[in-house]
Structure to design on (402 residues):
């Protein structure tokens, strides 16, 4: 698999992971990375370098919007939440990935037969 | 513990974006590193090891700076709605207010225009809330809120104490304006001509900022929208507080005032805005991208 394809898959999976997570509640960057790592048992892992360019890109596309909010300790965090446009992306993206995995499974099943 | 902001600022020096956007990115990334460090430290790691874990979040800072420069919206200094609606609206409403000050007319309407300008500044402030710094959010914006509230209170107090003042002052006696006195008529003619210019300016600013067709119409017709808002909001109040409401010829008076201050100016504004309302091919493509 070329590096470009790998990068596209990683990017696509990152997008759907972020959209799915933010569909539940608004979160800030560190918490997004932590929850994705925890809920996928480490299969998906975001570092600062991989997370923020993707968040900003999704924000530019109008899928996410962000606002600063201070927590009880007075620490300013930038919370991201889904926009209606972002919410509309979720279902087709999930469908696209489901089809992709079915196709891979079919291929893997065929090679075993 | 390291000064994370300083560290990020130094390593992200090559990032290409507005200073305000850069500050926000630095603050956000520094916060992420700080929390990564604290999380690692809380699991029992030594301070040194926790710092190393935090720093491992980024392999190559130059690549990250380039990725973020590409990903961040170029218009980060100001959002779309502020550029295409609020600012053009404030500009032409302010210009309309200045014309009235210069012509020494409609003092009551002038007051309303300044209040509307303050309220629209608040709208623009709310629209830009994500990008405002702490002092603006905690001092200047709340200050503007209380100023606007105080101005609205005084305005409302005048309306309540003399319900017909609003119609006398704002309408400039529409019947006289259109039929009798020469001086109000020449003022009104200048006023209408100025609206053509204001409409053109509003729609032009909105188009240059990439505004949609609707944004350009709204920006171009802003004074008329504000004036119609005045009538809609204040007519019930004046009727309510006026003992003569039932017997006065108010509906006809309101209708003529609406024509003089809303209908005709709206036509003039849209006439000026018309050349800039049409969707250009370039903007259409930009919208769809």
């Amino acid at each position: 698999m070329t590096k470009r394809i790998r990068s596209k898959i990683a990017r696509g999976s990152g997008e759907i992971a972020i959209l799915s997570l933010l569909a539940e509640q608004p979160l800030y960057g560190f918490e997004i990375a932590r929850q994705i790592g925890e809920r996928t048992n480490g299969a998906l892992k975001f570092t600062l370098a991989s997370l923020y360019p993707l968040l900003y890109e999704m924000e530019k596309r109008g899928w996410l919007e962000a606002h600063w909010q201070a927590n009880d300790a007075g620490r300013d965090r930038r919370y991201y939440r889904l926009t209606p446009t972002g919410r509309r992306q979720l279902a087709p993206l999930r469908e696209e990935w489901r089809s992709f995995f079915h196709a891979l499974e079919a291929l893997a099943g065929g090679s075993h037969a | 513990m390291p000064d994370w902001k300083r560290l990020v600022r130094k390593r992200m020096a090559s990032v290409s974006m507005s200073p305000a956007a850069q500050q926000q990115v630095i603050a956000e990334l520094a916060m992420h590193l700080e929390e990564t460090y604290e999380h690692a430290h809380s699991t029992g790691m030594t301070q040194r090891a926790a710092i190393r874990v935090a720093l491992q979040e980024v392999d190559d800072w130059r690549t990250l700076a380039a990725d973020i420069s590409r990903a961040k919206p170029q218009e980060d200094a100001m959002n779309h709605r502020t550029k295409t609606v609020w600012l053009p609206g404030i500009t032409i409403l302010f210009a309309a207010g200045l014309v009235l000050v210069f012509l020494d007319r409609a003092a009551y309407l002038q007051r309303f225009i300044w209040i509307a300008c303050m309220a629209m500044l608040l709208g623009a402030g709310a629209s830009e809330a994500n990008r405002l710094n702490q002092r603006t959010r905690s001092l200047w914006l709340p200050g503007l809120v209380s100023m606007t509230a105080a101005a609205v209170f005084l305005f409302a107090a005048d309306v309540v104490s003399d319900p017909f003042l609003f119609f006398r002052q704002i309408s400039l006696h529409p019947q006289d304006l259109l039929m009798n006195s020469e001086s109000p008529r020449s003022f009104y003619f200048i006023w209408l001509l100025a609206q053509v210019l204001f409409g053109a300016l509003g729609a032009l600013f909105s188009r240059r900022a990439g505004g949609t067709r609707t944004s350009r119409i709204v920006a171009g017709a802003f004074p008329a929208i504000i004036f119609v808002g005045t009538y809609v909001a204040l007519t019930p109040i004046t009727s309510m507080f006026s003992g003569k409401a039932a017997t006065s010829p108010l509906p006809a008076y309101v209708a003529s005032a609406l024509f003089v201050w809303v209908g005709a100016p709206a036509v003039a504004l849209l006439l000026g805005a018309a050349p800039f309302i049409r969707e250009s091919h370039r903007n259409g493509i930009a919208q769809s991208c």
Notes: Confidence is low (pLDDT under 50) at residues 280-289 of chain B. The interface with chain A takes residues 24-25, 27-29, 31-33, 35-36, 39, 56-60, 63-64, 67-68, 70-73, 129-130, 134 of chain B (CB under 8 Å). The CA atoms of residues 159 and 165 of chain B lie 7 Å apart. The radius of gyration of chain B is 26 Å.
